[in-house]
Amino acid sequence: MTTKKILIVDNEEYIREVTKICLESTTKWQVITANSGDEGIKKAELEKPDVILLDVMMPGMDGITAFKHLQQNSETKEIPVIILTATIQSSDNYRYTDLGIKAAIAKPFSPLTLAQEISEVLGWSSNQ
Length: 128
Hints:
The structure is a single chain. The chain has 5 helices and 5 strands; from the N terminus they run E-H-E-H-E-H-E-H-E-H. It is of the alpha/beta class. It has one domain: Rossmann fold. Strands 2-1-3-4-5 form a 5-stranded parallel beta sheet, with helices on both faces. The protein is globular.
């Protein structure tokens, strides 16, 4: 069994660190982080993560724009993306689904159930 690799892209250091600690303490996943859309795209190309957790509202390149860049790149277009956002409305969920985003998880999220939510969205078994 190979260890899952998760890329967290969020401009807020606190969110990156809390998410990383949360996932590493409840799973055996390898967690890497990026602080901007540009850095996230570069790390996705280099690291080939199993999933990207992507913040929507970031300065410079927002999450949706970063997602579109990932989709246009043959190296990253197959990587599933889950949006992390402070604001989720049903209209947003439809828009995200239409774009090809796997799911949206609201911030603040539950540290104890985040890994389970990600696994359920992606169809991973609990021991992955």
